[in-house]
Design a protein that fits this description.
- The protein is of the alpha+beta class.
- It is about 15% helix and about 30% strand.
- The chain has four helices and eight strands; from the N terminus they run H-H-E-E-E-E-E-H-H-E-E-E.
- Strands 1, 2, 3, 4, 5, 6, 7 and 8 form an eight-stranded antiparallel β-sheet that branches.
- A hairpin with a 2-residue loop joins strand 1 (about 30-35) and strand 2.
């Protein structure tokens, strides 16, 4: 796949994503997510994520081992894991950790920065706070779907920039909307108006 240059931002390397999942989740906050599609480029500053581990995490899709659906989670790191949920939504995750360990970080919310008109068209709203506030809205705003499962974030049309900008207090909380594994404090969120849940 053709590598797209990052406007004003050098993209993260495979080494960054190959670290422990919880460490990567925390380190993604404040960095900018980009997607250069045929329709145009969208970008947003990551403000909320959740970490999901493998066999030790009952909240993870990889808890019971590899399947055709979750195989991307088992590595290598630095790829998108995109899944369909509730029969209507896509959610995008960043694959992390050592190959075979099945780690991923769910992208829950961003502060929109580039391509707001395009995001608004995709989302059907021009309310900036609702463009990418929540994992399903984020995927829709960035046009992440089934075809992006396995997309390379190191050498592809979507990427995360190295530059970090933190605007508010960072909090660590339990994950949202889970029954198994909901007690694990693996949600990282920047306090402010862009998060999908309580910040």
């Amino acid at each position: 796949m053709r590598k797209v240059s990052s406007p004003g931002s050098v993209r993260l390397t495979r080494r960054f994503y190959s670290r422990e999942t919880i460490e990567v989740a925390r380190a993604l906050l404040g960095r900018t997510l980009y997607h250069a599609s045929a329709e145009g480029t969208t970008a947003g500053r990551i403000v909320e994520v959740e970490a999901y581990l493998g066999s030790v995490d009952p909240g993870s899709h990889a808890f019971k081992g590899p399947t055709p659906r979750n195989r991307i989670m088992f590595g290598p790191a630095g790829y998108l894991y995109v899944y369909f949920t509730y029969g209507m939504h896509y959610c995008a995750n960043v694959v992390t950790g050592k190959e075979g360990a099945a780690g991923a970080v769910l992208l829950r919310a961003v502060e929109p920065l580039i391509g707001l008109d395009l995001m608004a068209e995709r989302r059907g709203t021009d309310d900036k706070r609702l463009l990418a506030r929540g994992p399903a809205r984020l995927s829709q705003a960035f046009a992440f779907g089934r075809d992006h499962n396995g997309l390379d974030l190191v050498d592809g049309p979507a990427w995360v920039g190295r530059t970090t900008r933190i605007k508010g207090e960072i909090r660590q909380t339990p994950r949202i909307g889970l029954k198994p594994g909901m007690d694990q404090p693996w949600r990282f969120v920047e306090k402010g108006p862009w998060a999908s849940g309580k910040s």
